Amino acid sequence: MRTRILSRTAAAVAVLLAAGLAVLTPAAASTMAGGVASGVAGGVASGVATGAEAISTGTWMATASVTSMTFTANTDQLSTVSNTGTIALSAISYKVTVSNPASGTPTFTLATCAVAWVSGKCSGGAGTQVGGTLAKNSTTTVTSTQVPPLNGAVYLEVQPAAVTASVTVTLGTSITSPAQLRTGVKTSQ
């Protein structure tokens, strides 16, 4: 009988704690745990829920259409990054790996544009450079606040300089939760 009363009391207190309507004292914790106040640091087991919280669940996914580019001349190459997730982004990171060519010291820059590139121009301009100059035989992560909207895209251009031998640039996307998401989320990712 005592066990049934204690378990009912524990259930009621758990509901009240979750609602922020009760504060659990060490004595009550000891009673509900059958005389053992386990998990209580320093003899204090209290908490109060205040304010409103919004929890969203969803997925974020941004993928590049072209992830590997081989350059044999100083000709820009393009990739489209699409957001196929359900959560809007506030930033996105790109991991850029430049191979080590047989000769020369090529460098690269990465630029973004909200609209598709036309003849090397972003709506009449040069686009927005992301990060600095990328050197041969390096892996660099750069972050951009120009992000693909939900069900939309952002357009990348990899701009080479001083290419004299075949060199490969590999692109990867990375999104850090919650720093690069527009809303706080609870997710299993």
Note the overall shape: globular
How many β-strands, per DSSP? 9
| Sheet with the most strands, sense and barrel status | 5 strands, antiparallel
Structural class: alpha+beta
**SSE series:** HHEEEEEEEEE
**Number of DSSP helices?**
2
Task: Give the overall pLDDT as a whole number.
Answer: 75
Please give a structural write-up.
The chain folds into two domains: 2-43, no CATH class; 62-174, Jelly Rolls. The strands form two sheets. The chain has a five-stranded antiparallel β-sheet, with no helix packed on it. Mean pLDDT is 75; it is low at 1-55. The chain has 189 residues and is an alpha+beta fold. The protein is 13% helix and 32% strand.
Key traits:
single chain; 189 residues; alpha+beta; Jelly Rolls; five-stranded antiparallel sheet; four-stranded antiparallel sheet; globular; disordered N terminus
Tell me briefly what this model is:
The protein is 13% helix and 32% strand. It folds into two domains: 2-43, no CATH class; 62-174, Jelly Rolls (Sandwich), CATH 2.60.120.
Task: Provide the fold topology.
Elements: H1 2-19, H2 26-32, E1 62-64, E2 68-71, E3 77-83, E4 92-98, E5 107-113, E6 128-135, E7 138-144, E8 153-161, E9 167-174
Antiparallel strand pairs: 1-3, 2-9, 3-8, 4-7, 4-9, 5-6, 5-8
